[in-house]
Amino acid sequence: MPRSRVLPEIERLDPARDFERISFLSTNHDFPWDVEQSLDLAFFKTYATPSVSALLDRTREFRDRGQKRYDDTRLILAEFLDHGLDSERGRTAQRLMNRMHHRFDIANDDYLYVLSAFILEPIRWNARFGWRSYTEHEKQAHFHFWCAIGRRMPIHDLPPTLEAMERFNLAYEREQFRYADTNRRVADDTMRVFLSWYPPPLRPLAHLAVRALLEDAVLEAFDYRRPPRWFRGAIFAALRLRATFVRWGPRRRKPHLNTEDRLRTYPNSYRTEQLGVPIPDAAARP
Length: 286
Hints:
- It is a single chain.
- The protein has 14 helices and no strands.
- Helices cover 64% and strands 0% of the residues.
- By secondary structure, the protein is mainly α.
- The chain is globular.
- α2 packs across α3 (32-45).
- It has helices spanning 7-12, 19-30, 32-45, 50-59, 61-64, 66-83, 88-102, 108-129, 136-151, 162-176, 181-195, 203-212, 216-222, 229-248.
């Protein structure tokens, strides 16, 4: 296996007990870019379910405040990983996320599917495009990390194992993925956010690249045309080539913290309380 500065520590830890530390080391040292891309795709895939897309379409968050909605979601998740679930910032992020969600009547299975996508899509991305393979320790820690978040939402009937979570995930997709107008609208709204990061001449190519990374069942649920087979192959080859360069390049000496990134919505800095729906500074601690 290609060398990793953090893997020896990861392998000494217990994924059921030390899942926060393992997830931090794995994501912030070895796979910061890969996890970010895979979580973007995971969130995008959830729009293939009409019950999920109908809620997002009704709120108009991605239509009216798409960049802020994207940045806030990314930063709330980063607060958990960068600072810990039980840190002051982690607890504030959890309250913000729960407050946003609890305004709506969301089915437990829809919650659970989104959670399962956040668990499984990084693992699937890594299997295809990672510069080294996830170890079983990392996969199990990733599972326990997200289940800990799920219990605090609270999500009920969490599958007890990673394998059971994947069975739920695949069954849900078979049963729930289908076309709806709201799927297409929310996908288009989110795609506009993605494409705004590129110069106008490159946006058609970027649109095609995103479609190349989505499964056919997701494309059908959005009524998006499949990209040419050769283009999908070229995107996959480019990502594997990147993995080769990363594999033999220098290892990261310091962790990459997403909470320190300068995002479009917050070009200088932000306070956790600014994310999502504002809550009073004196809100009660859980």
